[in-house]
Amino acid sequence: MPEGHTLHRLARLHQRRFGGAPVAVSSPQGRFTAAAVDGRVLRISNAWGKHLFHHYADGPVVHVHLGLYGTFTEWERAEELPEPVGQVRMRMVGAEYGTDLRGPTVCEVIDEAQVSDVVAKLGPDPLRSDADPAWAWNRITKSRRPIGALLMDQGVIAGVGNVYRSELLFRHRIDPYRPGRAVSAAEFDAAWTDLVALMKVGLRGGKIVVVRPEHDHGPPSYAPDRPRTYVYRRAGEACRVCGGPIRTAVLEGRNVFWCPNCQK
Ligand SMILES: [Zn+2]
Fold first, then answer.
1. What spacing in Å lies between the alpha carbon of 187 and ligand 1's midpoint?
2. Which domains does the chain have, with CATH numbers?
């Protein structure tokens, strides 16, 4: 599932490609009511956690959540628009570019009050300048739930997914099963500051880069086009720091990865 940095990259891309001008919006598949925004000027494209919002002139907002399978495919505009391939939920066409959205969990037109309702359920987003880490800390320090579950809860911190969760906890030597209330304020502060920095790297480069230069050697990454990770998708392999075996288990519906030796 895309993590928050991917949504912020999309928000910025759509602002550059379509912002400040009218956008032809349609639903080749027919499952999205595009008429409410078709031909309107896209004012602002932004993101909060894993939610993308296209704010159009005079009120309507397109709300997108990609879920596990949603993707945007961009194309350069030519005289003839490309035939939609597969189930295109939403097509946006601007002066120079177009993009097709397929397979999202959510693609709907809502109003600003409904945007507020969506955002009210979300925790602070490390990539937003208005993020308030104290909100997340208040939830974590009162909770008996494992920190590895709390980090995946979008109501605690918005935008963290499975890779950042495992890697952040490794970088701070915190066992994913430690209860939230057993995490110290100093540990949380350090982890939050690190998370903001890591997600900004992800936002700039489009890849999750988490391994420090001094550890960036040894076995290759789990996928050829991805940077190395400390623990993510490395179950059974040797820890890049202590050499012990990396473990995995299902926590909050997804596999968490950690080094029992390094993380307490
Ligand atoms: Zn280790």
1. 18
2. 4-121 (3.20.190.10), 133-258 (1.10.8.50)
Active site residue 254: yes
User: Is there a catalytic annotation at residue 3?
Assistant: yes
At 252, the pLDDT band (50, 70, 90 cuts) reads confident
pLDDT at 228: 98
Tell me how far the alpha carbon of residue 245 lies from the centroid of ligand 1, in angstroms.
Answer: 7
Average pLDDT value for residue range 213-226 = 94
Task: Spell 178-215 as b/e; 16+ CB within 10 A means b.
Answer: bebeebeeebbeebbebbbebbeebbeeeebbbbeeee
- Taking a 5 Å cut-off on Cβ, the residues next to ion ligand 1 are 239, 241-242, 244, 259, 261-262
The SS3 assignment for 71 reads strand
Mean pLDDT score, 51-65: 97
What does the alpha-carbon distance between residue 98 and residue 28 come to, in Å, rounded to a whole number?
13
- Distance in Å, CA 262 to ligand 1 centroid: 4
Confidence of residue 25 (pLDDT cuts 50, 70, 90): very high
